Amino acid sequence: MDIRINNFTSFKSKAYPVKPFIIKTKHGRLNISEVTQKDLKREGFIYNLTKFFCKNFASKTKDPNWRVFKNSRCFKSEQILNDFAKYYNSKIKHKNDNMTLLLVKDKRNKIQGACLSYGYDRIPGSKELVCYIDSIAVNPAFRGLKIGKILIEKTLESAKNTFTDAFLTGDRSACGFYEKLGFKALSDSINGQKEIIDYLSKRRNDYPKYIEFFTKPLQNSEDRWYNKTKIND
């Protein structure tokens, strides 16, 4: 696989920008760059991106709550899409100073992969410390080409200049993938990590059966982010 930096395309993120680059694969050339204002203004962009993420999530997880999404005629499927579209809309349109959204586009300008990240704001005191990989997905036809790995590595390579740690919520079917990237699952036997697990598990019904919480240091710091949050303040 050939990866080349594109020095002529502008990028958008203010917090931790990722310079555009090109990947040459057996399926042809793929352009990877941050979302642009032109993308955001395109009618239906957020909805189509949401559908892209949701279809990929549903194709991998064993969580029964996602089974209904595979039935496009099901009312609940449309409800899931609309709820997630509102969620992504709030994240993408109102966090451009604290967000990086990488898009992988083929020669037809069709999205074949995407990675959304931002400063983690769901735990008090973590927004300035943690880069949260909110969503990452690659279309099935383009899997096995290390695109997901490249998206995360490029994101974190830039994020390490702003954040001390990275965090993500990963489906259990993808544990091996995240571990190869240097992430480790939080453990309730470790002080600090246990508080994070307890806090998040009260707000999610898919842990621990279907998902795992993963973290990775981005800087050489004596004290990790989970020891600096304000959960217990």
Fourth-tier CATH superfamily name? Gcn5-related N-acetyltransferase (GNAT)
Total tally of structural domains? 1
Mean pLDDT over all positions = 88
Gyration radius over CA: 18 Å
Which fold does the CATH topology refer to?
A: Aminopeptidase
Structural class: alpha+beta
Q: Would you state the CATH class?
A: Alpha Beta
Sheet with the most strands, sense and barrel status: 9 strands, mixed
What is the CATH architecture term? 3-Layer(aba) Sandwich
Task: Give the strand content.
Answer: 15-25%
Which series of helices and strands comes N to C? EEEHHHEEEHEHEHE
Low-confidence stretches: 1-11
Fraction of residues in helix: 25-40%
Shape, please? Answer: globular
Number of strands: 9
Biggest sheet strand order reads: 1-2-3-4-5-6-7-9-8
Number of discrete helical segments: 6
The N- to C-terminal Cα distance equals 49 Å
